[in-house]
Amino acid sequence: MTFRDTQNMFNRITKSEKNQDNRQKFVGRVIEIAFVTQAIIIGIKGNLDVHSGKPALDVIQGMIVQGIELIVKTHRTRKSVEKGDRIKKDRIAQNPDD
Predict the structure, then answer these.
(1) Nearest-10 crossing angle of helices 56-94, 3-51
(2) How does pLDDT run across 16-70, given as a tens digit for each residue?
(3) CA 59, CA 36: separation in Å to the nearest integer?
(4) For residue range 88-98, what is the model confidence (pLDDT) as tens digits?
(5) Phi-psi region at 53: left, alpha or beta (left = phi > 0; alpha = psi -120 to 50)
(6) Residue-by-residue DSSP string for 19-79
(7) DSSP assignment letter at 97
(8) In terms of Cα–Cα distance, which of 15, 8, 67 is closest to 43?
(9) How many Cβ atoms from other residues are within 10 Å of residue 46's Cβ?
């Protein structure tokens, strides 16, 4: 294997890592947008419920519960993504030729 072959192989690995990083960033952004959208929907639904005549205290309690659920979902998703990233990095470290 010549120096040029090694250099080409390194460039291919670097490009694939960059593509994977870009994909991961894109997926992360999509997840962030989804959670923000859910938070906005919770707020809009709460406002509509109050305007339709439901008691404000009941609506506020419901919104708090939905907000806590969203926080828990966000935390779980972040943990699972971080765990997946660690597993992928471990696999790459164990099999650098793949």
Answers:
(1) 170
(2) 667 777 777 888 888 889 899 999 999 999 999 999 999 999 999 999 999 999 9
(3) 20
(4) 666 666 665 55
(5) left
(6) HHHHHHHHHHHHHHHHHHHHHHHHHHHHHHHHHTT--HHHHHHHHHHHHHHHHHHHHHHHH
(7) T
(8) 67
(9) 19
